[in-house]
């Protein structure tokens, strides 16, 4: 296959595989946070901001895959 | 085929002195720094003992980081010494990540490429911040207590307490783990820089592509998500910088004596 097609397929497959795990991880964080907030509503505000920070860190590996796929598309 | 304007990962040079280039993200950084310095100089002249609304907001930001610094350092005066660095990173990133929201700034064009670019969408800035932070805390830890600091990474002390073959294998494993810690430091730099760079650069690319498709109402949710995640990423960067610094410096200090 010609290199341009291979480039596009590579970028798409990189993102395809790399978005599975962060989605599962963030859903898990949200699930546990919701359960804790349901059990103890008065720490809701405190817990919400910590949940957002935890989600941003879980997102990291997905962002690494995104950077690789952008490099494949625009630089190579 | 639709017209997508050129997106380049490395920043394009704007002014060139021979082989020394000043790129457009450097100009963006200078603009943000200048704005921050002006703001600080003007704000300091108006500090009052009973704070008004804006001063309360700034005090709230400082308090946000002082609580985390206290819990990481455990000691108020040492926490105060680290506060300016962490807070500078946070406030600079807060403004720099939202750079494309300032109207008319990215429209200044010279030969088809923008003259000002969001600072943190350039890998150079984020890697520089991460390297300065990690290298700085290593240098501080080394100056404070050289032997313990090196001993955290070359764990030779386990070899001196060997009493049996099992202990010898444990000592070898500890030595190897010490080397892995050095790799871990490089991983810290890479993870922090790539997280910030990926978020901001991907937000810009998405904004450019969606605006090239439909320019009127559809880009709004994407721009809103970029704005929200920029604030979160600035906070995450500052919090991680704080915790890594505290970890490196505290692990070269002797353990606190419990009464």
Approximate helicity band of chain B: 55-70%
Give the structural class of chain B.
mainly alpha
Low-pLDDT runs of 5+ residues of chain B are: none
Instruction: Please mark out the parts of chain A with pLDDT under 50 across 5 or more consecutive residues, or reply none.
Output: none
Q: How do the SSEs of chain A run, as a string of H and E?
A: HHHH
What Rg of chain B is obtained from the alpha carbons, in whole angstroms?
23 Å
**Beta strands of chain A, count:** 0
The percentage of residues in β strands of chain A lies in: under 5%
From the N-terminal CA to the C-terminal CA of chain A, the straight-line distance is: 17 Å
Q: Tell me the strand percentage band of chain B.
A: 5-15%
Shape of chain B: globular
- CATH superfamily placement of chain A: F1F0 ATP synthase subunit C
What can be said about the biggest beta sheet of chain B?
2 strands, antiparallel
The helicity of chain A comes to: over 70%
In brief, what are we looking at here?
The complex is a heterodimer of chains A (76) and B (259). Chain A has 76 residues and is an all-alpha fold. Chain A has four helices and no strands.
Task: Describe the structure in your own words.
Chain A is mainly α. Chain A has one domain (3-74): Up-down Bundle (F1FO ATP Synthase). Chain A is built from four helices and no strands. Chain A has helices at 3-18, 20-39, 44-58, 60-74. The longest helix of chain A is centred in the middle third of the chain and has 20 residues, at 20-39. Chain A is elongated and about 60 Å long. Chain B is mainly α and 259 residues long. Chain B has one domain. In chain B, 68% of the residues lie in helices and 5% in strands. Chain B has seven helices and four strands, in the order E-E-H-H-H-E-E-H-H-H-H. In chain B, strand 1 and strand 2 (20-23) form a beta hairpin. In chain B, helix 2 (53-73) packs across helix 7. Chain B is globular, with a radius of gyration of 23 Å. Classes of the chains: A mainly alpha (76), B mainly alpha (259). At the A-B interface, helix 3 and helix 4 of A face helix 6 and helix 7 of B.
């Amino acid at each position: 296959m010609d290199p341009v097609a291979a480039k596009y397929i590579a970028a798409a497959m990189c993102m395809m595989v790399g978005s599975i795990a962060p989605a599962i991880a963030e859903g898990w964080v949200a699930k546990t946070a919701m359960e804790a907030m349901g059990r103890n509503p008065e720490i809701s505000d405190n817990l919400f901001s910590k949940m957002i920070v935890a989600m941003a860190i879980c997102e990291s590996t997905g962002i690494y895959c995104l950077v690789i796929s952008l490099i494949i598309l625009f630089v190579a | 085929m639709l017209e997508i304007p050129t997106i380049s990962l490395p920043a394009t040079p704007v002014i060139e002195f021979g082989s020394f280039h000043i790129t457009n993200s450097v100009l963006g950084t200078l603009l943000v720094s200048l704005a921050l310095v002006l703001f600080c100089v003007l704000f300091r002249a108006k500090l009052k003992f009973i704070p008004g609304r804006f001063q309360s907001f700034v005090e709230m930001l400082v308090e946000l980081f002082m609580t985390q610094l206290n819990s990481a350092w455990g000691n108020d005066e040492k926490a105060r010494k680290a506060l300016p660095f962490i807070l500078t990173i946070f406030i600079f990133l807060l403004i720099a990540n939202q750079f494309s929201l300032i109207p008319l700034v990215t429209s200044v064009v010279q030969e088809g490429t923008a003259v000002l670019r969001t600072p943190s969408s350039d890998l150079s800035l984020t890697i520089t911040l991460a390297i300065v932070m990690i290298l700085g805390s290593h240098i501080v830890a080394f100056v404070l207590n050289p032997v313990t600091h090196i001993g955290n990474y070359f764990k030779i002390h386990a070899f001196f307490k060997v009493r049996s073959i099992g202990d010898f294998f444990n000592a070898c494993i500890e030595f190897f783990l010490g080397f892995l810690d050095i790799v871990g430091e490089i991983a810290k730099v890479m993870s922090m820089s790539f997280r910030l760079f990926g978020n901001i650069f991907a937000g810009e690319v998405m904004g450019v592509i969606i605006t090239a498709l439909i320019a009127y109402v559809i880009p709004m949710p994407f721009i809103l998500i970029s704005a929200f995640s920029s604030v979160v990423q600035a906070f995450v960067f500052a919090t991680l910088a704080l915790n890594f610094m505290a970890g490196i410096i505290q692990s070269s200090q002797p353990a606190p004596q419990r009464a």
